Amino acid sequence: MASALAYKKNFKASAALELFYTGGPVALSPDATSVACACSDDIKIVDVETGKVTATLKGDSELVTALCFGSDGKSLLSASRSLQVRLWDISSGTCLRSWKAHDAPVANMVLDSSGGLLATASADKSVLVWDVDGGFCTHAFRGHKGIVTSVVFHPDTKRLLLFSASDDGTVRVWDLLKKSCIHILDKHFSAVTSLAVSTDGWTLLSAGRDKVVNVWDLKSFVLRTTVPVYETLEAVCIVPDGCGLPGSSAKVGGSGVRFLTVGDLSVVRVWNSEGASLLYTQKSSVASSSSKNDDSKGGILYATVAPGDRIMCVTSDQCLLFYESVPGEGGDPDFKLSKRLIGYNEEIIDLKYVGVDSTRLAVATNLEQVRIYDMESMACLQELVGHTDIVLCLDTCFTSSGQPLLVSSGKDNSARLWDLETGTCMGIATGHMAAVGAVVFSKKRKNFFVSGSSDRTIKLWPFEANINEPGEPSKLTSKAVVAAHDKDINALAVAPNDSLVCSASQDRTAKVWKLPELTLVITLAGHKRGVWCVEFSPVDQCIMTGSGDKTIRIWSLSDGSCLKTFEGHTASVLKVGFITRGTQIISAGADGLVKLWTIKNNECTNTFDNHEDKIWALAVSGDGDNIATGGADSLVNLWVDCTVEDEEESYRQEEEEALKDQDLANALKETNYVKAVQLAFELKRPYRLLNVFEEVYRNEDSTTQMQTILQALGKEHLRLLLEYIRDWNSKSKFCHIAQRVMYSMFHVISPIDLIKVPGIRELLEGILPYSQRHFSRIDRLTRSTFLLDFVLSSMSSLLPSEDKRLLTIEPEVEPDIEHATFEPPLDSANRKRDAMLEEVDAQLELIAAMKEHVDSRMSDAEVVPDVTPEVEVSRKKRRKQKH
């Protein structure tokens, strides 16, 4: 019972599966530890090992068109449609230099082997060479008749040659010394997409969309051979000899230049230029297009050879595939997928935790595939391919034998049962006449699942754990079916004991059905809009629903009455879930908010805002300590319960404050006012600081002590002190202390140091009006005392001569009659009053002068009215009245 009352109070976003690549250029760092990806107008730097975004380089609101790492891997060069080329420092994320390169967007850029020269290829049909350090153009080459698609330097710095390829089907060779084109290689019949130079520097490879690779001799600049590859090529890379990649061995294929190609077939192949022989073909490809019916979107768009016998491929559906060389059949090297990073997930439709320890996450997006992610590396471990349309709903479970299963349903009117250990489809459930938008596993027996469709029917599908034959998914048969609702079915939930199933529909109702017959038990009516989600309580006889009317309701299973209603979302509630043994609720809505509710007090405990669009998916881990949310912003947030950590941190802070409070009391007792003031600032307690200043001013040497205190303060403490003075000055009870502290500050701290305090202008503007009000009040009181002076002096003239002596001061010693002067007590009081008023005038003049000095030093041209004339008039009036 005690653990049930340990409510959760806070969740923190521990990690996120975020958008980092939307298509376009990609660059791999020289040490292959990070990747630079174009993300709309920004650039994301992604750590290859963890899959997390380590840096974001903010763009200029135009799409990025080309990327290139510096030779040291610490800098990055980028080009965008704004026609600007930028040099970035990755560690700080700042742009070091930018310049306009071409009259059209840059399509490709590359650095020479020394890292000092940058070549840019543009849609304006020109190639420019830049000095990276100086930022000026050294060469301008023109001659292509189409867009320049690729450019590459000769690897030998002694041979100052530059090669460029264009969609006019030609490759041009440029001499950097002669600053002219020395050869035109024109054997292609379509756009040339990629160039590569052999490691020895004597062979040039050009690949194009005419489905061939031309091999050029760089000694005579003639065509050596043509290799037909029978696919539209996007990239060609040299395979170094003896590197360990498939086809790189000297015993395979004999002499010649070995190279790999990628294109619209989505497979990696290795070739030998000698004899145009194929050395290696990837047996199976994990690269998939976003739509099988659209051939223009398929294939691999870019590939590069990385250190450590690895290659990186970039697919058309924004996936980064990393292959490593491993021993294959017969001992020959083979490519194995070592990591898959998904750059763009589109909308997150649904997600569920996978595994006993919830270390994996199944995600359904606007694609036909279901992706399984590892939460630690953020890498995609599996892609479940089989649906022919978008997947809409997921559910996971573990059988009694520990077999992990997943069921998915989609717009192809079917549901599929998957074995997550092998990634194979075990069974297919067909029979619905419309999209299947809801599917849920049995909770207890784990031997059936229920599906709900837009055809308004619910079907129950039994299955066995090992129903599939190798390579052939079984066809599942429904055991029961019922026409459940008048509109689309949005969600389903099965009771913990498998006796009931509840359906939620757009007809504004939720219905409870008895299993396995699917007979109606009760109808839950009361929502004013469609019901989006439903969930059984794990401990009580009740059901929770979330609706488009922005409310969450808890219903009694016995009579169907509404027990509680939770209001707080500003848009439709799309997902709900029970946590903390059914005593709390977690909800997600179309307002992009995740809310934590406590059922007992019917209140929202906390609200989490980390999405920019509606949240379609919410998943709770088995222990309830982890939550995953995904939405229309293509972002998956992982939330971790941090209630215990927050409480421990709160206790620690309270202990520290208690110790500092004791130190403050000890410092006051020891009259160590400097330490007391410092502790009051650390505790951020202005009232305690006010008490310290009051005690200081009770001492005779308060001026010296205040000077020591103020000289020990830094700029930040001075800013805080002025903020406190501004607050004290607004209250008549504390204004006298505020004025005295301010008087001491202006006499101890020089104006040059004061104007360096952050926000000094705003602080003085807040102090001046109340200071004027206080001085006006003192002036009115002073003038009121003149009436008292007049009355007392008039009354003294009516007293007998003997009584008048009472108004004189009797000296304690024998007076010197010749030189002694006696003054009435009223004159003495008047002098003290005048002295005080003069001090007030001086204080106000000092504040005004300080404000005027600050205004003159500030760049802001806003003028604050000068109060000095008012002070002067007030002072002259009092002097006139005094005399």
Question: Residue ranges: pLDDT <50 for 5 or more in a row?
Answer: 289-296, 807-826, 859-868
- Biggest sheet strand order reads 34-35-36-37-41
DSSP strand content: 35-45%
- Annotated CATH homologous superfamily of the domain at 390-639: YVTN repeat-like/Quinoprotein amine dehydrogenase
The structure class reads alpha+beta
Question: What's the oligomerization state?
Answer: single chain
Number of strands: 57
| Annotation field: number of helices | 11
CATH class of the domain at 390-639: Mainly Beta
* Radius of gyration from CA coordinates: 40 Å
Largest sheet entry: 5 strands, mixed
Give the fraction of residues assigned to helices.
Answer: 10-25%
Look up the CATH topology of the domain at 390-639: Methylamine Dehydrogenase, Chain H
The CATH architecture term of the domain at 390-639 is 7 Propeller
Shape: flat
Query: Please, what is the average pLDDT?
Result: 86
Could you tell me how far the N terminus lies from the C terminus, measured between alpha carbons in angstroms? 83 Å
Main location: nucleus
Keywords: Nucleus, Repeat, WD repeat
Subcellular location: Nucleus, Nucleolus
Protein name: U3 small nucleolar RNA-associated protein 13 C-terminal domain-containing protein
Write up what this structure looks like:
The structure is a single chain. By secondary structure, the chain is of the alpha+beta class. Among the domains are: 390-639, YVTN repeat-like/Quinoprotein amine dehydrogenase (Methylamine Dehydrogenase, Chain H, 7 Propeller), CATH 2.130.10.10; 642-712, no CATH class; 715-795 and 822-883, no CATH class. The protein is built from eleven helices and 57 strands. A five-stranded mixed beta sheet has the order 34-35-36-37-41, with no helix packed on it. Strands 1-57-56-55 form a four-stranded antiparallel beta sheet, with no helix packed on it. The protein has a four-stranded antiparallel beta sheet with strand order 2-3-4-5, with no helix packed on it. Helix 4 (702-711) crosses helix 6 and helix 5 (715-729) crosses helix 8. The protein starts with 10 loop residues before the first strand and ends with a helix. Its main location: nucleus. One of its GO terms (cellular component) is small-subunit processome. Residues 858-883 are annotated as: Disordered. Residues 661-795 form the U3 small nucleolar RNA-associated protein 13 C-terminal domain. InterPro entries: Utp13_C (IPR013934), WD40/YVTN_repeat-like_dom_sf (IPR015943), WD40_PAC1 (IPR020472), WD40_repeat_CS (IPR019775), WD40_repeat_dom_sf (IPR036322), WD40_rpt (IPR001680).
